[in-house]
Amino acid sequence: MTQNSTSDQEEVVLQGIGVSPGVVIGPVFRLVNEEEHIVERDVTPREIPREINRFHGSLDATRRQIRDIQSTFEKSIGHGDASIFDAHLMVLDDRVFIEEVVRDITEKRRNAEAGVRVVSEKYAAALGAIKDAYLRERVVDVQDVARRILRNLSGRQEAPSEDIDQPSILVATELAPSETAALKRDKVLGFATDLGSPTAHTAVMARAMRIPAVVGLHDISVRVSTGDRMLMDGNKGVLIIRPTAERLSEYGHVLEVRKSFENVLQGQVALVAETRDAHRVGLSANIEIPEELDAVVSQGAEGIGLFRSEFVFLAQGHLPSEDEQAEIYERVAKRLAPAPVVIRTLDLGGDKFLSHVKYPSEMNPFMGWRAIRLCLAQPDMFRTQLRAILRASRHGNVKIMYPMITKVDEVLQAQELLESAKAELRSKGTPFDEQLPVGVMIETPSAALTTRAIAPHVSFFSVGTNDLIQYTLAVDRVNERVAYLYEPTHPAIVRLIKETIDVGHEHGVHVALCGEMGADPIMAPLLIGLGLDEISVTPTAIPLIKDAIRHLSHKDSQALAEEAMKKHSAAEIVSLCREVIAQVRPEILDLVR
Ligand code: PEP
Ligand code: MG
């Protein structure tokens, strides 16, 4: 990270990781952590009555707010769902709770914030230990109410994200994928966070929603205040706080150049991804939500190489039924037909969780109960999804893909469940594509090294470099502290991709790549040279990758890949690729870091 000034009022330039392209200029809206407002401190005996009054005042405010929310809820949703607030009101009127907080303030001589936190934590722990499931669930109510009381003690009104009143650049410590999905497009020009990485699903979501984003800025959330003016370049990962007039005019020029290059790219939408020496490569799209279909078509994708179906689940407040899922998958299949649509089965866990599915708490969620593991352990949920995909298959060219395979046995188990889902549909006379192709993600080192065992059972592989890199290099894909070790061109990764392609081709298996590595145009010579049949990327990246491919020679790219296989470091391999791009299409280097 660089900084060219330390004064509060002067321009500050920061370098982070650009994860979603686009340049935006606007005021900062700083999303404040709940905990930031909670100041706990010791008090003098004279301050004790004031603290007790503050506590009672916050209880009254909380009661009023809960009644308000309850009545709004009852009007729009009905009494049943609003009854949850009765439980909250009961906590607020619980004499033992109130007396304990007052005693804590008086005896321990601490402020009301400390008393509420200590007593509510004690309550939650005691309820959590009780065998009765109903009482255990009250833990959430106690925590919710305590948060609200603490918020009122701090003098704040509502959740901070609801306060954005003008289009702003959101600045936060971190955003969860679900929070990103809930961002209001008309209020959020872009976002910048302390934590995060390009392959975290928050970044994936930002690209899908076309919200420019820069992450991994370490301390941006404490460097800016709400209202500061900021320029953010999501392509280059650059953030400029209080940009000068010269900077703005310089950026005006950069934007003009980019705009004219983008016009060139848009002019190629109808062309195929073919090298100068006429080698065709499939270029398809990754999507998370059906709303991306327009972009898939307008950006010239030849199909959908990865539909992350878990986002269908994340978008709902409940587990979607077979009919609800089938309707969505059908919509996608019909829109793309006869082009292929690869629907990846549920890949939950890791950094994607549903509030309505119970997860064990895990030390290493990316290596835990995730993706195919979770699905094989929940066969009813899995078969429901498989039936929904099968039903969609008669409306288009649908394929199924299993995520996070680590060994052939998992493929065979999944296939067994697929067969039983087919049998269920047949018994009801529901039509589906009997020849529906099945493939797997190659995103664990063990899968990449056992492709010979897996190949006979599938018709395609898709290399998931986002996970393959994290598992092979032992680098958490969402941890910005180790982001410097997250190297797509590490020789180990290049070897695993090559092995997957070579073995796949020996067995007549189509080999695609759908990780973010494919969306980096600098990687194109290497990936084409290694022999991939298809690259699948976020829709907005398609024109640029196509442009890169159309300027490359397949023969030269093969030579580059051979050379890369002899290199010992990621940096050497990147250099080879950059050199080629600098020669054949230097304009691309202006767009990427
Ligand atoms: C991958 O791991 O490369 C991939 C495409 O899947 P996801 O990013 O959803 O884990
Ligand atoms: Mg993955």
What do these coordinates show?
This protein has 593 residues and is of the alpha/beta class. The protein is built from 24 helices and 16 strands. Mean pLDDT is 89; it is low at 1-7. It binds phosphoenolpyruvate (PEP) and magnesium ion. The site of phosphoenolpyruvate has 11 residues, from strand 10 and helix 19. The site of magnesium ion has 5 residues, from helix 19.
Number of domains: 3
The main β sheet shows up as: 8 strands, mixed
Helix amount: 40-55%
Q: Helix count, per DSSP?
A: 24
Structural class call reads alpha/beta
What is the first-to-last residue Cα distance? 13 Å
Q: Ranges with pLDDT <50 over ≥5 residues?
A: 1-7
Q: What does the oligomeric state look like here?
A: single chain
Task: Give the overall silhouette.
Answer: globular
| Biggest β-sheet: strands ordered side by side in the sheet | 1-8-7-3-4-5-6-2
**What is the number of E strands?**
16
Q: Averaged pLDDT, please? A: 89
CATH superfamily of the largest domain: Phosphoenolpyruvate-binding domains
Bound molecules: phosphoenolpyruvate, magnesium ion
Rg to the nearest angstrom? Answer: 27 Å
